[in-house]
Amino acid sequence: MEQTRRAVVVSIEKALIIGGGIAGPVAALALQRAGIESTVFEAYESAATDAGAMLTVAPNGLAALSIIGADKLVQSAGHPLHSMVMETGKGKQLMRVDALPGLPPSCTMLRADLFRVLHDHALANGITIEHGKRLVDIEQTATGVMARFADGTTAEGDILIGADGIHSTVRTLIDPQAPGPEYTGLMSFGFGEFTPDGRLSDGGKGDIEAMHFAFGKRAFYGYWRQPDGKHVFFSNYPQAEPMTLAEARAVPAEQWLDKLRAAHLGDTPGERLFAETSVDEMIVTGPMERMPHVPNWFRGRVVLLGDAVHAPSSSSGQGASLAIESAIELARCLRDIADPAAAFAAYERLRRPRVEEISDNAAKTNNGKTSGPIAKTLFGLIMPIATRTFLQPEKMFGPVHRFVIDWDQPVV
């Protein structure tokens, strides 16, 4: 990739990046373009193969990926999404949102496929990724930082970036009093088989015409038809008592499926979808969580990135895209501002308002998913009116989806 000339003589030459999921490799590639060397340290012994949840990379995420030459790679690994349809549990359409004019459609894919694409792109561009490196401690000096790993090894650099996810170790090392993930009151389950090769069944386009999101009588659910003709669907099941992913997966799958079938009785087409599926097609993706506002994004030469500091719930459809944006913006700040603390402060100024607004709006959506049948009925009556006035697609999604980072603009 083309390397960007630094705006100033930068004292930051080597970055340690903790976490090899989404934000970590993107940050490494962006830092490389800014002329800063980095190494990515991943706790798992191999590249992530989590076959769990699907995710969406929105147009703003694709625009940010274009800066590191990864947008086309990501698009080729997923399916373009052209429309979203909000409907009642009975299948009555409340609102349809098509891809905004002038923007590419969002890209829907398995999380594992996004990990793979970014991991491979980083390696192809000479980024070093070390696996089996679980961070246990950090030591800072006036001129650098040392990372200590569970295997007894260490690494030294000028700065350390914590891109280690919503259960971040780096966040706790920066601030032992930092908040942890917040449970939204919903457990998530996915069904169906996502087959990327299925894009060939519709003449090679790989399109998903529309995703349907339904406010079922007892649980929110979504469904769409893959290009290969198979249905993929999910349920956000309200449960007051939080469970970890491990605890949720320890419950027999048959018990979860029985609960979901009961929750979607009377839903159209939810009742049929959940009745015809089997435990073999079910993925327990666990509690839906979000990060509350984190007071301290950085300390000294250590800074947080992506889900470690601003994970919205999956209701936002922006988790991956915001992490990608933040990785690019952090690299810009480190490129143009010599002092790490000043660079981190500029990065936080650029990112905090946007990510917190999107996360807070998604939290309001979660409240709608857990509301009772009376509230959902009222919602169904109000929505058609709202979509003709203040809930127009451009007003709702334009500020989020049209966001573009100007890589060549200096950060001051």
UniProtKB/TrEMBL annotation:
Domain of life of the source: Bacteria
Segments forming domain FAD-binding: 15-361
InterPro entries registered for this protein in UniProt: FAD-bd, FAD-dep_Monooxygenase_BioMet, FAD/NAD-bd_sf
One MF term in the entry's GO annotations: FAD binding
Signal peptide from the UniProt entry: none
Pfam families in alphabetical order: FAD_binding_3 (PF01494)
Keywords associated with the record: Monooxygenase, Oxidoreductase
Keyword Oxidoreductase: yes
Protein name: NAD(P)-binding protein
